[in-house]
Amino acid sequence: MLFVSTRGKTDLVSSSHAITRGLAGDGGLFVPKRIPQIRLGDIKAMEKKPYTERAVDILLQFLTDFSEDELRECVESAYAPEKFGGEPAPLVKVNVNTSVLELWHGPTSAFKDMALQLLPHVLTKAIAKTGEKHKVVILVATSGDTGKAALEGFADVEGTEIIVFYPSQGVSDIQKRQMITQMGKNVKVFGIEGNFDDAQRGVKEIFGNEALAEELEEKGYAFSSANSINWGRLVPQIVYYFSAYVDAVKAKSIKMGDPINFVVPTGNFGNILAGYYAKLMGLPVERLLCASNSNNVLTDFINSGVYDKRREFYKTVSPSMDILVSSNLERLLYAVTNENAEKVAALMEKLNNEGSYKIEEEHLKIIQSEFFGAWVDEVETKEAIARVYSDYNYLMDTHTAVAWRALEKYRLLTSDDTFTIVLSTASPYKFCDSVLEALEDKKQSASDPFALLHKLNEKTNAPIPERMLALETAPILHSDVIAANAMEEAVVEYLK
């Protein structure tokens, strides 16, 4: 399998090169030259396989310069029972036509673990295949979950350094504590005075600085990314769509071949894009529901064809979705414009220079036939948490609640009762203050996040993830907070 840039100005590369580089040289994102096809019989065969073997089946389709044994070694290390328990991505039935796919049973209690526990294993093998002699510097911009998951995955991985930037006032207390207590001789964490978009823009600017790249190359460093702009981050996410479908068949919620819907809380469009690729590969997906919070730039885009980042930015109770520039949307544009790299490059330039773009009607119709966009405000989010817990005794975090409420809106508007899987992206304990506020209908007075952990546990009996409890006594190792325009300087200083 060869990979091309969405902007068309780089040579075809192998999957190993795409993963090692992270971002294409022309600023575009790597995408596969063709989409491999999975037959229904092959999907049915997954029923009797554990998650690790299902992962090997899918990864083999894209990472063709890896052997089956190499990929099996990677997935078995990534999804080991001591990291994910008995089942990495369990499907939990909530009502007759809705199940929840819990993607947060990994080390950091967020769905990012599903990809970021695997990426370091794949990346180190990719580095060996490409003959890369430089130490790979992983740069990460995070809205909360990616940062900790990447730190956890890459800590003390030979031949790598990892630098994470997060909005210092834009993540939950638990998310922040997870990052600033991270151990590892090769890790560095910076808070920035700004939001996620500022962090993401800063990382992209560092990637695009050729003079800096040359300077650091002389010192033995090469940049790569662990954000979902890296194909090595995105491809493991395709796996759990297939796995969830198979588990729904096993649970007799659907029959093999039946169409289903997925609803995904998303900010950067990576998680839902993986579902789109799964559909292109042959998974019987009817509709992908894109759920947004008050930062509803994606909902507006799906409904109008206009992407406009020039709007008020809201800090919400679902902070991992507080994003106005959705990087992975570029990959979708490449697909729906029939791989017109020139058009994609022009749209991205327009977004960068003017802050908005509008796609053609024919391309909008394609998107609307595949996706439905809905957004959910703060009141609706908390109301959904309380009501679902009351009605079904199912406890969800704020991001999952956004998805659940978006699904209700979709069903009300369309009367579509197709069996649907809601992707649950984080443990409710990562956002326990907001979850408790929802359950008790009042603001929580406790300033200690760990006191709130115990309070939520007492109220619901839902088990607290052990690693989260350990944060209470973990020492603070990363206290730097810098201006958003000082990120490049911080990278250079750290790598001296």
Please give the alpha-carbon distance between the first and last residues.
37 Å
Q: What is the radius of gyration computed over CA atoms, rounded to a whole number of angstroms?
A: 21 Å
Major beta sheet, strand line-up: 4-5-15-10-11-14
Instruction: Work out the strand percent.
Output: 15-25%
DSSP, total strands: 16
Number of domain units: 1
* CATH A-level architecture: 3-Layer(aba) Sandwich
Shape: globular
Mind sketching the topology for me?
Blueprint: E1 2-5, E2 13-14, H1 15-21, E3 30-32, H2 40-45, H3 51-62, H4 68-78, H5 81-84, E4 91-95, E5 98-102, H6 113-116, H7 119-130, E6 135-141, H8 145-154, E7 160-167, H9 173-180, E8 187-193, H10 196-208, H11 210-218, E9 221-225, H12 231-250, E10 260-265, H13 270-281, E11 285-292, H14 297-304, E12 306-308, H15 329-336, H16 341-354, E13 356-358, H17 361-370, E14 371-375, H18 378-392, H19 398-414, E15 420-424, H20 432-440, H21 449-460, H22 466-470, E16 481-483, H23 487-494
Parallel strand pairs: 5-15, 6-7, 6-9, 7-8, 8-16, 10-11, 10-15, 11-14
Antiparallel strand pairs: 1-2, 1-3, 4-5, 12-13
